[in-house]
């Protein structure tokens, strides 16, 4: 299911999108209408629910509707309240008080901009199936969103991700912790749907992190230097050993695919399944070793 959000500046579109993310919806970024970028429909999985913000034309609605059930939500608020919010946002961004003349100029620019925006968004506003009035406090808005979700669930079945999708999404977050300046890979060790350990690329324990010039191999471009970084798949097994956790008959999730050295380690660790990014296919030797060792392979499309 996809919930698409439209509305004018300051109406609260982002607040609504953030609340839906807390409810388990995956956020999809819409390219700016002045660019030639395509809508991120390739990221949409039948196992997930999504929220997209700032829908600007009816063609976008049609494209998303072809992929899944779609609910178009218009977030609305009085002009005075929207201007107050936008002025406050500007003050926080600039980090200083805004003068009266600056406020007037800002209001004038916003109003002139909105006249153009309204011409473009009118068909989208008319197509909205639900209108959320955001004219009070945050608690009131959240109560309205809860009622909206309850009403929507009567028409559409809310989906939850499969175990593989769920763990792969966690693995993508783990990859962001990588301190390596060359690779950002995350790995997860799971047994019976329980997370055992995590791993990401970095130098060994007590050694300067890679992004602190701890690894000469990654930081010295063009020079044949020894790399000190452990790969994510390697670290997820090392962490299990460090904490005394058995790796036998486990599943490893990785945002990349293991190199030959990591493959040897995973096989010796006794893993029974490898779930990896299908955009990073296994090389021939790695594939052959894993198949001979009877490790189940699951290439997965990354969101």
Description:
The protein has 303 residues and is of the alpha/beta class. The chain has ten helices and ten strands. The chain has helices spanning 13-22, 58-67, 79-94, 100-127, 138-155, 163-175, 216-219, 232-242, 260-269, 284-292, and strands at 2-7, 26-28, 50-53, 70-76, 130-133, 186-191, 194-200, 251-254, 273-277, 296-300. Strand 6 and strand 7 (194-200) form a beta hairpin. Helix 9 (260-269) runs parallel beside helix 10.
Number of strands: 10
Proportion in β-strands:
15-25%
Order of helical and strand elements:
EHEEHEHHEHHEEHHEHEHE
Query: What is the average per-residue confidence, as pLDDT, rounded to a whole number?
Result: 88
First-last Cα distance: 15 Å
Adjacency order of strands in the biggest sheet: 2-3-1-4-5
Briefly summarize what is shown:
By secondary structure, this protein is α/β, with parallel strands linked by helices.
Question: Tags for this entry?
Answer:
single chain, 303 residues, alpha/beta, 5-stranded mixed beta sheet, 10 strands, 17% strand
Question: Which helices and strands occur, and which strands form pairs?
Answer:
Layout: E1 2-7, H1 13-22, E2 26-28, E3 50-53, H2 58-67, E4 70-76, H3 79-94, H4 100-127, E5 130-133, H5 138-155, H6 163-175, E6 186-191, E7 194-200, H7 216-219, H8 232-242, E8 251-254, H9 260-269, E9 273-277, H10 284-292, E10 296-300
Helix pairs in contact: 9-10
């Amino acid at each position: 299911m996809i919930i698409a959000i439209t509305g004018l500046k300051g109406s609260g579109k982002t607040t609504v999108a953030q609340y839906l993310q807390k409810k388990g919806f995956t956020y999809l970024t819409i390219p700016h209408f002045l660019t030639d970028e395509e809508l991120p429909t390739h990221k949409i999985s039948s196992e997930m629910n999504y929220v997209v913000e700032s829908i600007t034309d009816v063609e976008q609605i049609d494209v998303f509707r072809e992929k899944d059930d779609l609910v178009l939500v218009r977030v609305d608020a009085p002009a005075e309240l929207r201007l107050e919010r936008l002025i406050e946002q500007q003050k926080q961004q600039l980090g200083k008080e805004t003068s009266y003349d600056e406020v007037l100029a800002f209001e004038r620019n916003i109003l002139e901009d909105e006249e153009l925006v309204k011409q473009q968004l009118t068909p989208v506003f008319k197509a909205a199936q639900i209108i959320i009035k955001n004219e009070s406090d945050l608690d009131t808005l959240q109560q309205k969103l809860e009622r909206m979700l309850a009403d929507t669930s009567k028409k559409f079945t809310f989906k939850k991700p499969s175990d593989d999708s769920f763990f792969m999404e966690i693995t993508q977050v783990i990859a962001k912790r990588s301190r390596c300046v060359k690779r950002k890979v995350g790995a997860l060790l799971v047994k019976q749907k329980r997370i055992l350990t995590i791993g990401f690329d970095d130098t060994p324990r007590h050694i300067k992190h890679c992004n602190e010039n701890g690894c000469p191999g990654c930081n010295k471009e063009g020079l044949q230097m020894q790399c000190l970084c452990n790969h994510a798949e390697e670290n997820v097994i090392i962490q299990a050993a460090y904490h005394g956790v058995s790796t036998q008959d486990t599943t490893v999730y990785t945002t990349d695919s293991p190199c030959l050295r990591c493959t040897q380690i995973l096989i010796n660790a006794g893993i029974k399944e490898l779930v990896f990014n299908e955009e990073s296919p296994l090389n021939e030797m790695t594939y052959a070793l894993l198949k001979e060792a009877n490790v189940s392979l699951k290439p997965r499309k990354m969101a």
